[in-house]
């Protein structure tokens, strides 16, 4: 079953073309990495999939319908996502869980992200990695069919990162699909079934890690792809 | 393999097998060979509207409870929102409490009304505005919008928590006025006083909401105070308009806070004493209501437009 489908999607913010004719399809059970330099259009892609923005042109479907209709079936971690103050971890997870049509028990989801020992603590006292795990708990609480993760492990140490992906894989084991953005090539190569490379709003490559890399190094491939676009379309020319 | 040859927007055409799935993972289906056009048609999925477990009312109740608990953990909130009007009443209301206005009303009652109005309007404008602006600034509203949590429930929850705090202000002020201030009202009048204070939070929360969405998050607290303090003075909450420069009286008639005060005084004081205490001529109740409700509607519309504009144009 197709979980994400974008056809000819363009998103313009005034003169800036954040996405430029993107075609993308993600099937159920896949873990897909979205790689791209800063300003490539990764966050815009997530915003369109979460109905936080509307495409200027093209069609976006999530779980077979418009993104806004899928909100109760999608869990998301956004880049620069924030948390409220003076609320405890348990209170926050319980509150957000109540907004979903169905929810994992609070203690269970906290245990899954290893925050059960912090349940009574104020979110303001959490470390960067713990905040990310709390955001993952908020993304997982509604038993999502699709997880959209925008640079989810940016503030995490190695142990937290491994634990994070173990939880994401568990969710996939329960039938979820994952699309995540990252700047970490190793993470993309080891975690993802498929890697998408995007730059200047254009999808440059789409393949399994083996297909993309072969005997080469993913970082070299990534640089080659994005530099190729820069050469073909000097700054400002991609519209 | 030379991946440089990958055509932009296309998958590489090698026949390499998929990387083995990590253990515990469901094997993923094959990726589309040539993009969406070649993939099987999407299986239609019935639209499932996100209905909160326990319903919207249950979610709202939980939101209010969470907000109230959260505010109790912030001592500065209790000081700013609840204790200041009480302290002001103790300092200025109780000292002249037994003095009488020409119609026989105790100054203690008039000051109870004016400082309670000040307290609940502060709560609605400054606290509500600053609180929502902070959530907006730290990205919590953005996080919420990626969940099925309805923005309306979020705002209603903030309002509900503000009503709880307004009730607290009204009760503490009433107890102080009734005991130390010698204010003696019939139960029905106390009920009217309480209802007016709660209504004040509701009608002025759109102004706080507007500040939260129209001002930059970091400046919202300053903007709220810059707006509110002149409003409070020009509305006669601290001193009768007759004791302030004439221009204040001219401005006051256009201020919703002035009209709200006039409604509250009018409900609990004889008309002559309202004039004597506030230094402003009374107007028909409908005129005062029109100003208060009209401004609330205009500000709510402005705030909704600002919130919508941010939702549509924000670039992540």
TrEMBL record, chain A:
Location, primary (coarse class): membrane
Protein name: ABC transporter domain-containing protein
The keyword Transport belongs to this UniProt entry's keyword annotation: yes
GO biological process, one term: response to antibiotic
Gene Ontology terms for molecular function: ATP binding; ATP hydrolysis activity
Record bears the keyword Repressor: no
One Pfam family linked to the record: ABC_tran
Keywords recorded for this protein, A-Z: Antibiotic resistance, ATP-binding, Nucleotide-binding, Transport
UniProt domain ABC transporter: residue ranges: 4-225
Automatic annotation (TrEMBL), chain B:
Positions of the ABC-2 type transporter transmembrane domain: 66-265
Positions of transmembrane segments: 77-95, 107-128, 149-178, 190-215, 222-241, 288-307
Topology with respect to the bilayer: Multi-pass membrane protein
GO-annotated molecular function: ABC-type transporter activity
Location in the cell: Membrane
Coiled-coil portions: none
InterPro entries from the UniProt entry: ABC2_TM, Nod_factor_ABC_transporter
Record region (Disordered): 1-52
GO cellular component: membrane
This protein's UniProt keywords: Membrane, Transmembrane, Transmembrane helix
Pfam families named among the record's database cross-references: ABC2_membrane
Skewed-composition ranges (Low complexity): 16-47
Principal place of residence: membrane
Name of this chain's protein: ABC-2 type transporter transmembrane domain-containing protein
Species: Cellulomonas aerilata
Organism classification: Bacteria, Bacillati, Actinomycetota, Actinomycetes, Micrococcales
């Amino acid at each position: 079953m197709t979980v994400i489908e974008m056809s000819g999607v363009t998103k313009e913010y005034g003169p800036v073309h954040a996405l430029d004719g993107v075609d993308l399809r993600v099937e159920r059970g896949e873990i897909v990495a979205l790689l791209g330099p800063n300003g490539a259009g990764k966050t815009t892609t997530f915003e369109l999939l979460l109905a936080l923005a509307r495409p200027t042109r093209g069609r976006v479907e999530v779980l077979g319908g418009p993104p806004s209709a899928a909100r109760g079936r999608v869990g998301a971690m956004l880049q620069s996502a924030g948390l409220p103050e003076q609320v405890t971890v348990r209170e926050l997870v319980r509150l957000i869980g109540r907004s979903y049509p169905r929810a994992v028990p609070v203690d269970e989801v906290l245990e899954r992200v290893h925050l059960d020992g912090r349940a009574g603590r104020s979110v303001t006292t959490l470390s960067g990695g713990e905040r990310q795990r709390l955001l993952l708990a908020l993304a997982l609480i509604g038993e999502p069919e699709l997880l959209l993760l925008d640079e989810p492990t940016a503030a995490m140490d190695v142990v937290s990162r491994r634990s994070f992906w173990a939880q994401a894989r568990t969710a996939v084991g329960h039938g979820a699909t994952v699309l995540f953005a990252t700047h970490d090539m190793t993470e993309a190569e080891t975690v993802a079934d498929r890697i998408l490379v995007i730059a200047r709003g254009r999808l440059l490559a789409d393949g399994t890690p083996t297909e993309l890399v072969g005997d080469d190094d993913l970082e070299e491939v990534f640089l080659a792809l994005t530099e190729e676009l820069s050469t073909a379309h000097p700054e400002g020319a991609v519209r | 393999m030379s991946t440089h040859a990958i055509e932009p927007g296309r998958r590489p055409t090698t026949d390499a097998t998929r990387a083995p799935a990590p253990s515990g993972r469901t094997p993923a289906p094959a990726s589309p060979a040539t993009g969406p056009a070649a993939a099987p048609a999407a299986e239609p999925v019935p639209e499932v509207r996100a209905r909160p477990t326990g319903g919207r009312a249950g979610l709202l109740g939980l939101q209010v409870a969470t907000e109230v608990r959260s505010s109790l953990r912030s001592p500065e909130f209790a000081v700013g929102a609840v204790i200041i009007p009480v302290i002001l009443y103790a300092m200025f209301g109780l000292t002249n409490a037994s003095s009488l206005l020409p119609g026989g009303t105790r100054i203690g009652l008039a000051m109870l009304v004016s400082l309670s109005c000040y307290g609940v309007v502060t709560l609605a404008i400054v606290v509500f505005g600053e609180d929502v602006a902070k959530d907006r600034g730290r990205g919590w509203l953005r996080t919420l919008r990626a969940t099925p949590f309805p923005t309306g429930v979020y705002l209603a929850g903030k309002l509900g928590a503000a009503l709880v705090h307004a009730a607290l202000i009204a009760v503490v002020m009433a107890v102080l006025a009734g005991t130390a201030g010698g204010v003696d009202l019939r139960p029905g009048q106390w009920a009217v006083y309480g209802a007016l204070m709660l209504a004040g939070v509701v009608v002025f929360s759109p102004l706080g909401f507007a500040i939260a969405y129209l001002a930059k998050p970091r400046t919202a607290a300053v903007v709220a105070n810059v707006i509110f303090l002149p409003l409070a003075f020009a509305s006669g909450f601290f001193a009768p308009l007759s004791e302030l420069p004439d221009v204040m009286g001219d401005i006051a008639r256009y201020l919703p806070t002035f009209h709200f005060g006039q409604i509250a005084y009018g409900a609990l004081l004889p008309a002559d004493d309202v004039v004597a205490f506030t230094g402003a001529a009374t107007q028909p109740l409908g005129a005062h209501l029109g100003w208060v409700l009209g401004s609330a509607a205009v500000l709510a519309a402005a705030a909704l437009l600002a919130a919508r504009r941010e939702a549509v144009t924000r670039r992540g």
